[in-house]
Structure formats: C-alpha cells, structure tokens
Amino acid sequence: MRHTKIIATVGPACDSESTIDAMIAAGTNVFRLNFSHGTHESHGVTYARIRSAAARARREIAILQDLGGPKIRTGLLQGAPFTVKPGETLSIITGDFLGGPGRLSTTFTGLAHNVRPGDRLLLADGFIELRVEATDGHEIRTTVVDGGEIGEHKGINAPGVPLPTSAITAKDVDDLRFGLSLGVDFVAISFVQSAADLRHARQLITEAGADVPLVAKLERPQAIDHLDEILNACEAVMIARGDLGLEMPLERLPRVQKEITRSARRRAIPVILATQVLESMRTEARPTRAEVTDAANAVDAGVDAIMLSGETATGVNPPRTVMTLDAIIRDAEAGPLSDTSRVAPDAIPNDHGHALCEAAVTLANQGDAAVIVAVTRGGRTAKRLSALRPRASIIATTDREEVARRLAIYRGVVPLCTQIGDTVDSVRTLVGEQIVAARLVAAGAAVVLISLDADLTRSDANYLKIHRF
Predict the structure, then answer these.
(1) pLDDT higher for 456 or 435?
(2) Per-residue model confidence as pLDDT tens digits over 341-371
(3) What is the pLDDT of residues 177-232, one digit of tens each?
(4) Would you name the residues annotated as active-site residues?
(5) CA quadruple 265, 267, 268, 272: dihedral positive or negative?
(6) What is the DSSP code string of 124-179?
(7) Which partner from 12, 181, 201, 340 sits 20 to 30 angstroms from 259, CA to CA?
(8) Which of 34, 25, 31 is nearest to 51 (CA)?
(9) CA distances from 352 to 271, 355, 381, 442 (A)
C-alpha cells in the first residue's frame, strides 16, 4: 500500500462523475476545492459528486476547502489577452473596470499605496516582470522588464513590498461558512503570516459551531519568520511553492522547503508539498525527468502528501496524472527511508501510549506483520503511529466517518470506518472480517493490533497484540 498521500484539485478538466471516479481509482486520497474560483453553487455540486464517488468506491476520501485569501489579481479584460514587450509602459489602476493594452485593473486597494519607484511586480506566476516607475496611491505606472501574454485574473506578486493584510478576507469568511455547512474535512488558510491568522480562522469556525482541522499555507516570507508559532497553531502545513518562490529569492526555495519539512516532522505535523509537481502534464502525456525526481525527493524527505493543482484542475488527463504520481511515489517508497524521513518527533507525549506505539512499530518490523491495525475512535493512535513512519501500513479503524476522512492526509494511514467493538476479542473478529473483506490484508496474514486509552484502569482499552486473521 502506498504511504504518501495524493491531493488532487478539482477544476473544469475533472469536474464530472466519471472523471472523479477514475481519479479515485487512480489513487486520489483528498480532493481540493479551490475557492479562488467557482461559486458556492458549483462547489456544492462538486462536493456532492465527490461524496457520492467515494461511497461508490467504498473509500474514505477527504475534501479540503482552500480559501482564496488576499491574493492580488488583475481584473477583467475588454477583448482577448494581450502581449506586452520589454520597454513598454503598463499602468495598474485601482478599480473594477475592463482592462486592455496599456492598462490593467485590480481591486486590491493597498497595492498602489504601498509600492515605491524601483519595486518589482511579477504577473502570471512570475513570467512577466514590471518595474514600478511612479504611483499616486491610485495608479501605478510601470515599465515592462520581461514580457509575455496577460490574461484575466492573473496574480500579482510584489516581492519585498509590505502588504499588511489579514489572511482572511470578507469573501473568505462567507466561503468558510459555506464550506462548513457542507461538511468539509479540512480548511486551508492562504497567505498565513503568523499564528494570529490561524487563531482568527479557528474563532470563525468555533462561532459556526464546527471543529475542523486547519492547514496553514506558507506563501510569504513572513510565514517562514514565524514558522514555529504557525506550526503550533495548525493541524497541517502546506509548502505552497508558487507564491513562496516569487516572494523570496528563487534559489532560497529548496532550502526553505527542507526547513519547513524538518520542522513540521519534529512536531508531528503533516506536511503537504504543492505547486508545479507535474506541471508539464497540464499539456503533455508524460512529466519531465526533473518533475519525476522532484516528486520522488519529496517522498524521500518524508512529506505526508503531494498536491496536484493545475495538473488536475485544467490538465489534459487528470486520472492519468494521478496514476503517474502514484507510480512515482510507489517506486520512491520501495527504497530505504532516508534519515530526514526518520526524524523523531518531539511533539509526541512521552507516555504509555508512546511506548506502546514504538513497541507496535518494532513488533511489526521484527514480526514481519503485514499491517498495523490501530483501533481508534478519535484518530490519535493512528496519528502517533504515522509520525513514527513505520514500514508497515497503518490501518486506522474507527466508527466515526469524519475521523476516518481526516486521517486520509496522514502518511502511511489507511482509514477504515467500521464497527470496532468493545473488547479485544470483538475487535479481532469485527476488524479482521472488515479488513480481509476490503482486501487490505490477505486471509491468514499476521497483523499487529494496538489500542490506546488515557484510562489505565480499563483492562480492554490498552493493548498490543500480534495476531493472524
């Protein structure tokens, strides 16, 4: 069983019943709903489509709501996209109007107030570079340094320009309430700069009467400066290399990616690697050798999940892209774990539960067990085991659907929603029948059974056994 999880973004290229089915069959564990695009109505339809597809496949598939955040974008154009060339002038004007050759609109009011002559502006994922010549707080006059084609709703990055904005916009608040009403399993907060952004999001979630894990998207250098406090305030972290690679010197990005991964691993926080993983598969049937190596190195570094964005949202063949990433991950996992992947987490409590989890990993390794079966109602046992990175897969059996889905993002964990019984004997019977029927293990295979509970007076709550089904 594959350990590293695959997150796929839903978009026009895959938002159909048959394609969602094919993507689940290809190996998708989590679907991402990108609220930078689409409407509540369209996302509601997609949400229902994913839930139905997961039920047909009898798989625990999670849904991640990704809030748009304070992304600076160009506005609509009057007519087709146009091309700018080096040396030409281009104005970016605050407002909501149709742009065209020589002028673009943006509704982000703070940009014209904060840029200064000599600042750099990057458009369209950094392919177009502009140099600021002057600004009056309303209109920014620039000179094109690197040209290219400009379309509608293109992102604008302003490296080094202070933009003191909250990570959660008024639109995000509305989108968040809608996502919670649907029942999303995770919420990703874009452009997180400090733990305060996450506390704000959690307050909104609490006020809505919900309790949903937060994914902190690291897209600005300020987030790296506050990495420790951010990791202490979220349930997972995403290395969003697109904007991050534009907001800081490009050559620094690989080092920062390793730093985030190591820091998150030490805290037992799931790490998601995102952006341009198999970018060439947006238009081609095969990835480049460099992309294959990049994805394999991420597996070796110990990330929990790899996310596909435009590759599946607008790519030519989303199921094939998922299948390709699945094959890359499986081959990378066939080799020995690197020292980076084996980083011992500091955040796991040094209690009897930790001792039992370490013993379960040792028992599985030395007893040649097919899997470790974690009997867990809240998911904590499976999360602890995942942080220890055992060679064996962890089948997390729980009787709560929402817990099973939220475990879909953890490396090495195969969630299974089933009856788990109240005694050791009933667990062996119920769980054994379920995992054999689901073809997660073969009949007669040796497995390690583990259950943890803080109450040491319960004779049936803390146990570790090796058993043959």
Answers:
(1) 435
(2) 556 666 676 788 888 999 999 999 888 888 9
(3) 999 999 999 999 999 999 999 999 999 999 999 999 999 999 999 999 999 999 99
(4) 32, 73, 217, 275
(5) negative
(6) TTTTEEEEEEEE-SSEEEEEEEE-EEE-TT-BEE-TT------SS-HHHHHHHHHH
(7) 201
(8) 31
(9) 26, 5, 12, 31
Q: Is 47 exposed, middle or buried (0-12, 13-18, 19+ CB in 10 A)?
A: buried
The first and second tokens of residue 430, run together, are: 């119920």
Maximum alpha-carbon separation in the chain: 77
Instruction: Indicate the domain borders of the chain.
Output: 5-69+165-333, 82-157, 352-468
Number of residues written out for the chain? 469
Report the CATH superfamily, name and number, of domain 82-157: PK beta-barrel domain-like (2.40.33.10)
CATH 3.40.50.1980 matches 5-69+165-333: no
> 448: which DSSP letter?
E
Q: Which residue, 242, 464, 238, is CA-closest to 372?
A: 464
* pLDDT of amino acid 437: 81
pLDDT of residue 347: 62
Q: Which CATH class is domain 352-468?
A: alpha beta
Closest CA to 405 of 186, 224, 187: 186
Range picked from 70-84, 165-179, 317-331, 379-393 for highest mean pLDDT: 317-331
In the numeric block, the tokens 């709703």 are attached to: 153
- The residues near 90 (Cβ < 8 Å, ≥ 6 apart) are 84, 102, 103, 104, 130, 142, 143, 144
Tokens of 376: 């867990």
Asked if residues 266 and 347 have their Cβ atoms less than 8 Å apart, the reply is yes
